[in-house]
Write a structure and sequence with these properties.
The protein is mostly helical. It contains 2 helices and no strands. The longest helix is centred in the last third of the chain and has 31 residues. The radius of gyration is 17 Å and the shape is rod-shaped. The mean pLDDT is 80.
């Protein structure tokens, strides 16, 4: 889940903020990589917590 969400977020950031210099050369977008990694970790944590809560609700019924 984290890898998938990281890839999706990275591609979205690439479209919004493309990594191109003033000369028109592309470069490695470390800022976009950091944003995508951090966002995917948050999404993964929220998904994990939600899954645990759903499982606990089903066990209590």
């Amino acid at each position: 889940m984290i890898v998938l969400s990281g890839t999706v977020i990275f591609n979205i950031l690439e479209c919004i903020d493309p990594p191109v210099t003033k000369d028109g050369h592309r470069y490695i977008p470390t800022e976009n990589l950091a944003k995508a990694s951090f966002s995917s970790l948050i999404i993964g944590a929220v998904t994990f917590i939600a899954a645990i809560r759903i499982q606990r609700l089903k066990k209590n019924k």
